Amino acid sequence: QKKRRAATARRQHLKSAMLQLAVTEIEKEAAAKEVEKQNYLAEHCPPLSLPGSLQELQELCKKLHAKIDSVDEERYDTEVKLQKTNKELEDLNQKLFDLRGKFKRPPLRRVRMSADAMLRALLGSKHKVCMDLRANLKQVKKEDTEKEKDLRDVGDWRKNIEEKSGMEGRKKMFEAGE
User: Fold this and answer.
1) Angle ∠(107,108,112) on CA atoms, nearest 5
2) Among 42, 87, 106, 175, which lies 20 to 30 A Cα-Cα from 114?
3) How far apart are CA 81 and CA 84, in angstroms?
4) Distance CA 97, CA 173 (A)
5) Which stretch, 110-124, 133-147, 163-177, has highest mean pLDDT?
6) Please, which residues have CB within 8 angstroms of residue 164's CB and are 6 or more apart in sequence?
7) What is the helix (H) or strand (E) element at residue 173, kind and residue range?
8) Which residue, 108, 107, 129, is CA-closest to 119?
9) How far apart are CA 37 and CA 67, in angstroms?
């Protein structure tokens, strides 16, 4: 147990030492970023001196507007370049994907689902219509009508099959044709 306690204490000591180093590194990085920001602003943004007369102010405003326009044009150009390169990257990735040919289709499972269940899955709670197709069928009673009796009496082709089978049947058909 002493070894375990010693190992735990050493681990905690190492962890606290690493945390202290990380905190100091973060502070150094933040200070470096701040210095870099100040240098950039001093280089690119000279201190603003407001002139006293109206005409000088108007000239300053014109210069600022021209500068804003040029910066907007640069931004737009870089955005267009970025979109173009992104599109090219997507096309190249698609070509690479097609050339590999290792596209593996996921196995599809066969699902038996009724029309009601399918509509309920697609439409959610909006589905109110019942798709039971057999429920809407018209009930028809069988009645013997005169037409059906006449058709039955005319003759059933199945009755004469045995008579017409073989050579004798053909002979009778030939003679009947004369």
Assistant:
1) 150
2) 106
3) 5
4) 73
5) 110-124
6) 170, 172, 173
7) helix 166-177
8) 129
9) 21
Cβ-contact 130, 116 below 8 angstroms: yes
Token look-up 């681990």 returns 11
Q: Given pLDDT bands bounded at 50, 70 and 90, which one contains residue 31?
A: very high
Report how far residue 121's alpha carbon sits from residue 124's, in angstroms, rounded to the nearest whole number: 5
Residue type, 58: Q
- Which H/E stretch holds residue 29? helix 2-44
Domain residue spans of the chain: 1-47, 49-104
Residue keyed to tokens 């009947």: 176
Q: What is the CA radius of gyration of the chain?
A: 46
Dump pLDDT digits (tens) for 40-56: 988 888 777 777 788 88
